[in-house]
Amino acid sequence: MSDKYNKKRIGIWGFGCVGQGLYDVLQHNRHTALEVASICVKHPEKKRTLPASMFTFNPQQLLEDASIDLLTELISDPEEAYLLVKQALLAGKSVISANKKMIAQHLPELIELQQKYGGRLLYEAAVGGSIPILRTLEAYYGNEPLQEVCGILNGSSNYILSKLHEEEISYQDALQEAQELGFAETDPRLDVGGHDALHKICIIAAHGFGALVDPAKVVRLGIEHINTNDVKLAQALGTRIKLVATARLTASGKLAVQVLPAFVKPTSELYFVEAEFNGVLLEAKFAGTQFLKGRGAGSHPTGSAVWADVSAALGGYKYNYAKIKQQHLSIDTEGLITIYLRTALEGELPKLPWLEVTSFGVNSKVIQLVGTLRYTDLLLHQRDLEKAGAFIVEVPQSLDSNDFIRASKLQELEIVN
């Protein structure tokens, strides 16, 4: 039988960075007998690389086309994405999405719609770029208890931090370079503020631990207030600052979820994840530690992840959500966390209920603290800390206040010399 009778047809919402990447990947896989039925875009006047006949400006056209076997949602607006994906699932259709915010905020409902109407939703590209983290969690750890999943999940922030550690340049210069290379958006707040990583770790928590986490109830602090002195302090401590997203099983049997800059030592694989790469560490109860690394941003790496989901969905693959069916973990908000805090706005700093705190390196312009407080208190004061311009880094158990005092003195000697 001729291939034209066996071809599967897909519809694509969105033709930005990821949509273009997916199309390019499809062109290199023509042997799969898969064709693009239509691509829905928003702006008719915009010049594009494909013939006008390939495009439509009505998103409903794809939903109503009975010849389309699979839909891919690759638009930036999370609310519009939610409405389209919801309609597809209500109709029992299969759909691929790369919209991490939409998925993280609506995952309980999206799971219910799949179960009720028989459609399927895959979203590997929404989490780790080219890293197959969700497929790994589903296929290899669906029935094995995990102790922790942590990682660098935002390539833009990691690129900026890498530049700060490698070169003595300012945060603004590093950000500008990331934007010029296409690693950071014109408005980078979702990346450098930790929002992007937050949505990704919430999705990971569902597949890795069976916990449906509300992103609004997770501590999320980014790197936008970092400066060169913070970087020099990290180096004096023998560490690097990384933006780390973590889902960790606590001693109380609850799940702690957070996104924070962290002092990472060379004993961790994350220390060596540089530039726009992502890296994920998995700690399993029986299998031990696994590490996955790959490009976390870019048209073709993300488009490749979408293509992998397209192939899997057409082959009948779907998420089992085994952990969600097995257990119902509650979120730990009473645990303790030790942080480094530096701000130049001491007068505007909220009064934090420290359990213990040490000041060091303090002068008339800057205050530096290392202290421990409850997770719930950090979450409560998170917005005020951001407004005060405070830069906050999680401190590992292997470091204490004396280490920071010594590192600060080394900095002072370096400045004098």
From TrEMBL:
Keywords: Amino-acid biosynthesis, Methionine biosynthesis, NADP, Oxidoreductase, Threonine biosynthesis. It catalyses: L-homoserine + NADP(+) = L-aspartate 4-semialdehyde + NADPH + H(+). It holds the Pfam family Homoserine_dh. Its EC number is 1.1.1.3. It comes from the Bacteria. One of its GO terms (biological process) is threonine biosynthetic process. Residues 14-124 form the Aspartate/homoserine dehydrogenase NAD-binding domain. Pathway: Amino-acid biosynthesis; L-threonine biosynthesis; L-threonine from L-aspartate: step 3/5; Amino-acid biosynthesis; L-methionine biosynthesis via de novo pathway; L-homoserine from L-aspartate: step 3/3. GO terms for molecular function: homoserine dehydrogenase activity; NADP binding. Residues 132-310 form the Homoserine dehydrogenase catalytic domain. The keyword Oxidoreductase applies. SUPFAM superfamilies: Glyceraldehyde-3-phosphate dehydrogenase-like, C-terminal domain, NAD(P)-binding Rossmann-fold domains. Belongs to the homoserine dehydrogenase family. NCBIfam families: PRK06349.1. This is Homoserine dehydrogenase.
